């Protein structure tokens, strides 16, 4: 999915911080505080989302539709409209 993304430019702050473009964060489902592994590969800095502990899903009744839905609780990644459309377009 994200391998096909075009390169995006960002800057290193005076504190050594890097701001990742929103499009990348959305595609990866990353939120503030997400853990990333950092390493050097052939002169490039590679950041890889660190897999967190698995969350337990709970079935709830969606207050808008009244239909059953899964929730993974607070802090779970939020799907964007584009991601939902992509998932549904691949559905048989």
List keywords for this structure.
92 residues; alpha+beta; Pemi-like Protein 1, Chain: D; two-stranded antiparallel sheet
Order of helices and strands: HEEEEH
Task: Write down the overall geometry.
Answer: elongated
Number of helical elements: 2
CATH hierarchy, class of the largest domain: Mainly Beta
Lateral strand order in the biggest sheet = 1-2
Structural class label: alpha+beta
Q: What is the CA–CA distance across the termini?
A: 19 Å
Give an account of the 3D structure.
The protein has 92 residues and is of the alpha+beta class. Helix content is 17%, strand content 22%. It has helices spanning 22-28, 81-89; strands spanning 36-41, 44-49, 58-61, 68-71. The strands form two sheets. Strands 1-2 form a two-stranded antiparallel ribbon. Strands 3-4 form a two-stranded antiparallel sheet. The longest helix is centred in the C-terminal third of the chain and has 9 residues, at 81-89.
Briefly say what this structure is.
This protein has helices spanning 22-28, 81-89, and strands spanning 36-41, 44-49, 58-61, 68-71.
SSE layout and pairings?
Blueprint: H1 22-28, E1 36-41, E2 44-49, E3 58-61, E4 68-71, H2 81-89
Antiparallel strand pairs: 1-2, 3-4
